[in-house]
Design brief:
Ferritin, 6 helices, binds fe (ii) ion
């Protein structure tokens, strides 16, 4: 396998990652309580359609079509997203978990696009590199939006924490400790 083969392999992998997200994002949107969070998932769904199209364009530049490889990392991230969806808790706590799951996805995608764009640049595939960069820019913006939303969701969950005693209190403290930006 040479660098160009590796680029092709990563494009197939990214295509799988993005198409898996097309199915997962509507479910994350319907599981969200906060309107802003719901809208962020729906907006990212629309962007993700463009991301899939860009990967297909990148493959066609290399005279290829998606070959149906499965991105195992995205399968795992979506499985964790499903844990957030199924969380037996108040909506505010579930929203905190959903934002966390979505940010894990974004960070994975950002890393994957950076890696693939780096290889595209190294093998002088400029059109492919530019297509990857466009999506990378959108993923980065999306992560920023989620990070702002995370702060809002924490506030909502903390309000709930003060308003009511017990199980929710324990959960939000656990999640709060893991807060990272
Ligand atoms: Fe994407």
């Amino acid at each position: 396998m040479n660098l160009r083969d590796l680029l092709i392999d990563q494009l197939h992998d990214l295509h799988s990652a993005e198409t898996q997200l097309l199915d997962a994002l509507p479910e994350m949107a319907s599981a969200s309580t906060g309107e802003n969070l719901k809208q962020a998932f729906l907006d990212h769904l629309e962007e993700t359609k463009h991301h899939v199209a860009r990967i297909e364009r990148a493959l066609s530049v290399l005279r290829l079509t998606p070959k149906g490889k499965t991105c195992a990392a995205m399968q795992g991230l979506i499985a964790e997203g499903n844990e957030a969806i199924d969380l037996k808790s108040s909506g505010a706590i579930r929203d905190v978990a959903l934002v966390g799951a979505a940010r894990r996805v974004e960070h994975y995608e950002i890393a994957a696009y950076k890696a693939a764009r780096g290889i595209a640049n190294a093998v002088d595939e400029q059109i492919v590199g530019d297509l990857l960069q466009q999506t990378l820019d959108e993923e980065t913006k999306s992560e920023l939006r989620l990070s702002t939303l995370a702060d809002l969701e924490f506030e909502a969950a903390k309000d709930l924490d003060t308003a009511s005693e017990a199980p929710a209190k324990t959960s939000v403290r656990k999640l709060g400790k893991k807060k990272q930006k």
